[in-house]
Amino acid sequence: MDELWQRYRTFWIPVLYGVGAFLAGLIVVHIFSDDPDAGRSQNEARVIGISKRVAPSAAQIKGAKENVATLTGRMEAWAKRVDQRHGESADPMEAYVMQALRGAVLRGTAPVDEARFDGDKSAAAQATASYDQLLRDRTQMLRTQDPNVAFSRIKADVVQTLSVRANRADVDVGTNAEEFGLGSIASVDRADLPRRLANLAIIATVLDVAIRENVRSIDSVTILPPLVRVLAQGPETFLSEWPVKIDLTGTPEALMAVLNVLTDPERPTPLGTCSWKQTQKKDGLVKAEFTVYSIRVMPNAPLGLESEGGE
User: Fold this and answer.
1) I want to staple 269 with a disulfide (CB 3.0 to 4.6 A). Which of 106, 244, 251, 262 is the partner?
2) Which of 89-93, 115-119, 170-174, 271-275 has the lowest mean pLDDT?
3) pTM assigned to the model
4) 166 and 286 assigned to the same domain
């Protein structure tokens, strides 16, 4: 036997190598495909499908790029109108602090409108100085210090100022409106800070008008749970919606002034459910419920649309 092996070794070694390679290849094929013939048929079908595809022309590519630029511009323009910041600041915290203090301290306008201080130049100047100082201090505190402590400070500034103004204007504050709904916020972390500041800003904006227009009462303020929509791919959300419900009682003229601010074409506030009904007393007063939305739009946040329907 040994003699036969020695004589035909040069013949059998290549044959055995070939058999081994064939078996190894067969094993690999069956590992990756239960049915090699089916896999080959699928690949052939894909080749046919790919060969039928038509590449876009240079003109089509150019048109698509132009459309992207046009639609992006429209989206950014609408984002500024719908977004509560209205382009005031790229930093949401700074924009919301500006709005909250503008409503509470400056009575809705910046620079200050002396007419809203009954023509008292000294009071208007004092309000401007207070606004400038608070804006610097509170924004810096929110950026660098504990978010819970920082939010508590700006919340206290707004609540105290609005409370004093309501008392002087003889506007009743109901038990369901204590601290203007902000007392329900037990604590604030860094991730939740934009939402809380946005709600604070929109509450100050609405109540500023209500107090200036001498509504009879601020009946309740309720911060509602945020709406959750699948409009994000990543840490930032394309659209954030943070609703607040505010109930007021006043004359139709006073309530219309509030509605006019909310529907200002230059600074529109998205509205949810709104209802008006006359009180049981025949005093000409109306009870109104406004559901308003703090909206934040991040146009550059990815939506993941490019992966939908693709392979």
Assistant:
1) 262
2) 89-93
3) 0.74
4) yes
Q: Give residue for tokens 């007063």.
A: 285
Distances (CA, A) of 231 to 300, 303, 305: 12, 6, 10
Distance between terminal CA atoms of the chain? 59
In a domain, 202, yes or no: yes
pLDDT tens per residue, range 39-84? 667 766 776 777 667 777 778 777 777 777 787 777 777 777 777 8
Establish if 78 belongs to a structural domain: yes
- Residue 60 falls inside a structural domain: no
Question: Is residue 71 included in any domain, yes or no?
Answer: yes
Residue type, 11: F
Interacting residues of 183 by C-beta distance below 8 A, sequence separation 6+: none
How many domains does the chain divide into?
A: 2
The band of 234, judged by pLDDT with boundaries at 50, 70 and 90, is low
- Say how far apart CA 180 and CA 221 lie, in whole Å: 5
Residue 7 structural domain: 2-51
pLDDT at 17 over 60: no
